Amino acid sequence: MDHAADAHRTDLMTITRFVLNEQSKYPESRGDFTILMSHIVLGCKFVCSAVNKAGLAKLIGLAGETNVQGEEQKKLDVLSNEVFIKALVSSGRTCILVSEEDEEALFVEHSKSGKYCVVFDPLDGSSNIDCGVSIGTIFGIYLIKDGVEPTIGDVLQPGKNMVAAGYCMYGSSCMLVLSTGSGVNGFTLDPSLGEFILTHPDIKIPKKGKIYSVNEGNAKNWDEATAKYVDRCKFPEDGSAAKSLRYVGSMVADVHRTLLYGGIFLYPADKKSPNGKLRVLYEVFPMSFLMEQAGGQAFTGKQRALDFVPSKIHERSPIFLGSYDDVEEIKELYASQ
Ligand SMILES: O=P(O)(O)OC[C@H]1O[C@](O)(COP(=O)(O)O)[C@@H](O)[C@@H]1O
Ligand SMILES: [Mg+2]
Ligand SMILES: [Mg+2]
User: Fold this and answer.
1) 154 lines ligand 1 (CB under 6 A)
2) What is the CATH number of the domain that holds 63?
């Protein structure tokens, strides 16, 4: 790092400064959310560092491989889960944690308990780990009522009740995208500083996009509305240009591209999976929250995604999210079905 050339950068908007600025808008705030976020950020940096070394796992003894001493190492998704659980519990600001990796919700012991519930997918897109393709962490945050013992009902709430949501993408750069309910902001990790810097302020998704993103391998099992919509993407009835297909197979990467470039991401129901594949609490809700905050829409095939009320922590739902006009079109198809 050229310290002289970089000296002027000390006034950059780091994520810590950003969250502190947000906090200053609420004079009654005691900084609990800021502390919670700093622990989430630490977890993201830790997982980013492990992901960056994943290809070297065999040589240096990292996640999912047997190291040179012949010891079994933890898989990256198991490791990421432990990283976030430790970071969240040690923040002293959480009371319930729901992770994709754990069957049951974790109730934080009283001495370390706080008022936030965090639902998270510690490593999303895990099938892409071994080929070095973008993966991520997704999180959503609920707040319990003051002075009331937390119960599982505090997380079985519609996504619109989240106080914040975000994801961190471990891609060609490491990006953390966050909404606290007043817009969406993107921060890129500067590896030499070890800080997330605000690089994408106030992200707005284009009103209409040129890309659709779906696993077309499931097409034979789709319902009529999804099949018709995807057909229209390829052969638009109004004579406009066909949309391009992009599908990474990591929700974080597919949603990130959709957010920045516009278009639509679909994981519909099909005959084999009547509720789709993606999990409501820690995949569908956080991404739907971000989409709406960026000016887009998110729809389950039946209703606004953020109005859905989950009845169990690992519940699944079909999801269609992205640019306002593109989602509007599929809503119309479902309404006429
Ligand atoms: O392989 P498919 O069926 O297209 O599913 C892809 C979807 O599955 C997921 O990988 C599920 O996430 P996990 O890796 O956290 O289980 C999403 O990231 C992605 O959108
Ligand atoms: Mg996932
Ligand atoms: Mg996962």
Assistant:
1) no
2) 3.30.540.10
Task: Answer yes or no: is the C-beta of 121 below 6 A from any ligand 1 atom.
Answer: yes
Residue listed under structure tokens 């065999």? 58
169/23 same-domain check: yes
Q: Evaluate whether ipTM surpasses 0.90.
A: yes
3-state secondary structure at position 174: strand
End-of-domain residue from the set 141, 172, 200? 200
Instruction: Tell me the per-residue pLDDT of 199-245, one tens digit each, with 9 for 90 and over.
Output: 999 999 999 999 999 999 999 999 999 999 999 999 998 889 999 99
Shared-domain flag, residues 132 and 99:
yes
Same domain membership, residue 120 and residue 233:
no
For ligand 1, mutation pick of 283, 288, 319 (most atoms within 8 Å of CB) = 283
Contacts of 307 (CB under 8 A, 6+ apart): 158, 159, 160
Q: 133 with 21, same domain?
A: yes
Query: Does 22 sit in the ligand 1 pocket, CB within 6 Å?
Result: no
CA distance 109 to 303: 37
Judged by its nearest atom, the ligand closest to the C-alpha of residue 125 is 1
Same domain, 167 and 219: no
Q: Which atom of ligand 1 is nearest to the CA of 124?
A: 15
Asked if 16 and 128 sit in the same domain, the reply is yes
Q: What is the pLDDT of residue 26?
A: 81
| Torsional sign, CA 187, 41, 284, 147 | negative
| pTM of the predicted model over 0.90 | yes
What pLDDT does 60 receive? 56
Q: Quote the radius of gyration of the chain (alpha carbons, Å).
A: 20
CATH code of the domain covering residue 270: 3.40.190.80
Does 215 sit in the ligand 1 pocket, CB within 6 Å?
Answer: yes
pLDDT score, position 3: 61
Ligand 2 centroid to 253 CA: how many Å?
Answer: 11
